[in-house]
Structure formats: structure tokens, C-alpha cells
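Q: How would the C-alpha cells look for this protein?
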Amino acid sequence: MIIIGIAGGTGSGKTTVVSKIVESLPKDKVAVIPQDCYYKDNHHIPLETRLKMNYDEPDSIEWTLLVKHLKELKSGRSVQVPTYEFVTCSRLSETKEVLPSEVIVVEGILVLCDSVLRELMDIKVFVDTDADERLIRVINRDCVERGRTPKMVIDRYQEILKPMHELHIEPSKKHADIIIPQGGDNVVAIKLLTDYIKSLL
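A: Here is the predicted structure in C-alpha cell form.
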């Protein structure tokens, strides 16, 4: 089993890179585990408070559960991955079964921040995209998918996303084996990565 960690700032193009990796491999050989599914369960906190919480710091993630699930997959056992709902910022009761696969992709802004998780990874990738481009993507995504106004997104970017990116996410780039500039638009880098993954299988 090959475990690949793919990190990068919010709106950097991680999902596009993951999609292209998945498309390049047979469906039964790859499974994707989003870090976002492992946000801590805060349903007991009022919604108004949840909406203002900082979700861009390592303490917002239940790392022990994510590490446990990866170890179980490596041992050949399936896992029940939590589901998370961004509109209400809460974990749902439903889970999604993930089966052991030859390739497991763990994707999220903070996945290179946790040392225990990094030890489980065979390949560590950082998707690096210009800050202005990331902000535009975040505004488009959060307004369409998460019910936020442009002002809400920009305020959150200035108060939380930008400082947390500089404090936690950008420094985690030093742990990467591969850095992909220009995000999902970097066809050459993505092909080199997918060819390398295929060579390991």
C-alpha cells in the first residue's frame, strides 16, 4: 500500500490534483480520504459560534482518528470515515466505508503538519498556488457551496485563513517530497507524479 499526502493552502488546487491522480489509476486501486472529514465534532457548540471558529489550525482536526484509520487500512481492514457538513460546521451521523486499496490519498490543508501522520506517508506533496488566485477560488467556492457572502469570506480570509496559512500551512511545505507550483494547471508535474506512483505499484 502506498499512502500519499497532498497538502496546500485553501483553494490551491489540491482537489484537482487528487482527481487527476485518481483518473490515472484503475478505480479499484485508489481511495481518497479528505482531512476535512476529521474536523472535531463540535455539534454541541451553538451554530453562531461554530461559524466563527478557526478551522485552519492543527487543533481543529482529530488526528488520532485519522492515524488510526490509516493504520487499519494498512492492516487490511476497512474503516468508517466520518462525514462533515460545512454549512453547519458539524460532523454528521453518517459515515462512509473506505476499503483497503493499493493507493490511499490523504488530502487536506494541514496533512503535512502532523508528524505522526507524516510518518505513515510514502509520498508527501505540497500544491503551491499564488495567494490571490487562492482567494478568488475560495470566494467562488464558499459563496456557491457554503452559503457565505463575499464579505464573510474576505473577512474570514483576513482574520483566519491568511494568518493560519502563514503560521501552519506554508511552513509545512518543507516536509514535502514534491512541490507542485500552479496547482491543478501544472500538467507536467502531475504527470511526473502519477507516473512515479504507477512505477511503485
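The CA atoms of residues 38 and 63 lie 7 Å apart.

The chain has seven helices and seven strands.

Upvote if useful.
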